[in-house]
Design goal:
Layout lengths: L9 E6 L1 H4 L9 H16 L3 E6 L2 H8 L9 H24 L5 E6 L1 H5 L1 H16 L3 E6 L13 H11 L4 E6 L20 E2 L4 H5 L13 H13 L3 E6 L5 H6 L5 E3 L5 H12 L4 E5 L1 H8 L9 E5 L7 E5 L5 E6 L4 H7 L7 H5 L13 E2 L4
Parallel strand pairs: 1-2, 1-5, 2-4, 3-4, 5-7, 6-8, 9-11
Antiparallel strand pairs: 7-8, 9-10, 11-12, 12-13
Helix pairs in contact: 2-4, 3-4, 7-9
The structure holds glutamic acid.
């Protein structure tokens, strides 16, 4: 099977701490990062949306703070992350800035990716950054995440970010070139698995134990990440990041492991909106908005005639045409009180009507689905 990077339109690249930070000195590997910057710029220039999930805050900060080697206490790793994140973001901004690319720092907690409203907000910000052709650089907000409510590893975080952003490919750059039938450092018979069409119990049993001192994610968290990614419609690659230009190496056919998804993120999401979510309200829209929505446009306040039901921001609502027929369903950016206030008004009036500058679209086209089940 040939799977090249060309066919993907939105790609998340996750960079592990051990690739970015030299374990002995605790300093950033500038040359390696610059070479990866070349790779990312090439993808970006070919018109793809690119997102980075970067670890390394704790690894960088612990060196600066002269924290002891070995496992850190939670507060120590949080302090290290607070210090290291500044340097990490700066380096990404510099490396990509040299290529003429703007970066935006996004720090997320588990709650931001799991609670619907916060999820929608984070997703909207990512979407807007990508529309503006910036590269979001994402990390966990380690300074406030506590043990019970944190990812702790950026493999699973990256998978959630990938599904949240509707990415069709996630690349985990790692200090191993893929999934092996057995741990390759202890078993000479171990062979690399090039393609995993489905994550079976057998695949899970190949994952082995934990990661290294600097990076938390071992193969186990990578398989967990693959489950999240593939069930959300995102393909995933585990690839060797220890070479210069690791993305160029994948494109040139260097062995790695692909985890394939059966669906795609847009259809997975639309199925969810159209059929899985229970609608909490109805928006009756005018003839102009009906035509606009049917031709793939977002719903603006001006097109809304009447609002029925009690709903919160992020709930699913049904859209009805003037003849009462269902046009489709969508996730709404405002609650029912706000929507009623906005109905029939211009997007320019949102700030005056609500007291804050809300989104121009009441339902964004990406959050709309047709042909409800
Ligand atoms: N968020 C952590 C950091 O930036 C890394 C977690 C991981 O290694 O997966 O240091």
């Amino acid at each position: 099977m040939t799977l090249t990077l060309d066919r993907f339109r939105r790609i998340v690249v996750k960079v592990g701490s051990s690739l970015l930070v030299d374990g002995a000195s605790g300093s950033l590997k500038h040359d390696w990062l610059a070479a990866l910057g070349d790779d990312l710029a090439r993808l970006h220039a070919s018109g793809k949306d690119v997102l980075v999930v970067s670890s390394g805050a704790i690894a960088l900060g612990r060196g600066v703070l002269k924290l002891p080697r070995g496992a850190l206490k939670l507060e120590e790793s949080q302090a290290a992350a607070a210090v290291g994140q500044i340097a990490l973001s700066k380096s990404w901004a510099e490396v990509l800035g040299k290529k003429g690319i703007t970066t935006g720092q996004i720090l997320v907690t588990l709650g931001d990716t799991e609670e619907r409203q916060r999820y929608l907000n984070a997703r909207a910000t990512l979407g807007r950054l990508l529309d503006l052709r910036a590269i979001p650089v994402v990390n966990e907000n380690d300074t406030v995440a506590t043990n019970e409510i944190r990812y702790g590893d950026n493999d699973r975080l990256a998978a959630r970010v990938a599904t949240m952003a509707g990415a069709d490919l996630l690349i985990l750059l790692s200090d191993i070139d893929g999934l092996y039938t057995a741990p390759p450092n202890t078993n000479p018979e171990a062979t690399l698995i090039p393609v995993v069409p489905r994550i079976t119990a057998e695949i899970e049993s190949m994952a082995g134990g934990a990661g290294s001192e600097l990076s938390r994610g071992g193969m186990r968290t990578k398989i967990e990440a693959a489950k999240i990614a593939t069930s959300g419609g995102t393909h995933m690659i585990i690839a060797d990041g220890r070479v210069d230009n690791p993305l160029g190496a994948i494109a040139a056919g260097k062995p790695c492991t692909w985890f394939l998804t059966g669906s795609n993120p847009v259809s997975a999401r639309k199925t969810w909106i159209a059929g899985v979510l229970e609608p909490k309200g109805v928006l009756h829209v005018d003839a102009g908005a009906t035509v606009a929505i049917r031709s793939g446009k977002s719903l603006l306040p001006a097109g809304i005639k009447r609002v029925e039901g009690l709903f919160e921001q992020g709930d699913a609502v049904v859209l009805r045409a003037p003849d009462g027929g269902e046009i489709g369903r969508g996730l709404i950016a405002y609650d029912s009180t706000e929507t009623a206030l906005l109905a029939g008004r211009s997007s320019k009036e949102i700030e005056t009507l609500l007291g804050y500058a809300g989104r121009a679209e009441v339902i964004h086209r990406d959050d709309m689905a047709f042909g409800a089940a």
